[in-house]
Amino acid sequence: MTVPRPSANTTAQARGTLLGAALGDALGARFEGEDVVGGPSLVAHDRAAEPLRYTDDTAQTIVLARHLVQRRDRAPVDEDALATDLARAWQAEPWRGYGAGSRQVLELVAAGVPWPEATRACFGGHGSYGNGAAMRVAALALIATSLTHAAQLADRTAKVTHAHQHGREGAELQACAVFLALHSDPVRPLDRDHYLDELSRALPSTSWHGRIDQIRAMPPTASPSYAASLLGNDATAIRSVPMALHSFLRYPDHPAEAIRYAIRAGGDTDTIASMAGALAGARTGIHGLPVTWLERLENADRIRALADRLAPRIPRTR
Ligand code: F2R
Ligand code: MG
Ligand code: MG
């Protein structure tokens, strides 16, 4: 899996990646912060006709995707410009449910404070280890040319809001995980052990290897709440990215099931479901996503258009 597999339908995969992330966020938002999400309330929300509104997760995913589109022929990431773009998005829609740390950083950046200074001001100088940098990285996997490149891009985008090592490494892990899902062979069953091996090898730091081992050791039939009790389900990167990965690995070919499983784990439901949705959507493409959900999703056309601009940049090796 080290050499990217060419995609026969890059547009479908790019759409699956970004729309899978947005659907997980929008479906999960209703339950964010609830300890336990019961099947019946999820089924009711799942089948309702009302629009699916997304939160800060998708708002920031859109900012990053647009940044990559706009920088077409230049270096893909400009940290200063990205920090400004994120701050403008927060100013335009502060009601999207931003994390306290991100809110503080973006408010400072909007007031003219350079991002390195703003990010260090967070959490008593330690910087944020929240999952806000991980939840927005999906588009990076579309333009990355290798796992190493995905990790590098993720770190560069993460540090503009998340100075803490764990916040940045969570973004690296999620970007690499989406990259591997995107380049996995959809015709063959996903080899879970091989996928996790590749992921471990890709990470620049060994500090997450223990979490990856915990995912590997999870029983195949683990309930969402049992998985959450071991892997975590809160708004920190280290206690949410592993749960998203596990949700994807439970249902790699069924994005809707991966999203439902992530939501039923409770806690940071929008974010964990968004990361799981990006992973599964990257593998199956948009055809794996329920049409009834897509029809209800806020700004689906805008997200689809961004995916279509990034699709030609998915590396082809065949
Ligand atoms: N903020 C929320 N949800 C709260 C409720 C929203 C409500 N529905 C509404 O509409 O108002 N969700 C969003 O925030 C998470 C992403 O967070 P981000 O961007 O990383 O922010 P932050 O605040 O930096 O980190 C999140 C939490 O992690 C803990 N934390 C982080 N670093 C810490 C440190 N150095 N020391 C101690 N704690 C640290 C804090 O609890 C942070 O608040 C997503 O869930 C997104 O959906
Ligand atoms: Mg959110
Ligand atoms: Mg959240």
TrEMBL record:
Protein family (similarity comment): Belongs to the ADP-ribosylglycohydrolase family.
Keyword terms, alphabetized: Hydrolase
Keyword flag Heme: no
Domain of life: Bacteria
Classification lineage: Bacteria, Bacillati, Actinomycetota, Actinomycetes, Pseudonocardiales
Species name: Saccharopolyspora cebuensis
Protein name: ADP-ribosylglycohydrolase family protein
Claim: Acetylation is one of the keywords in the record: no
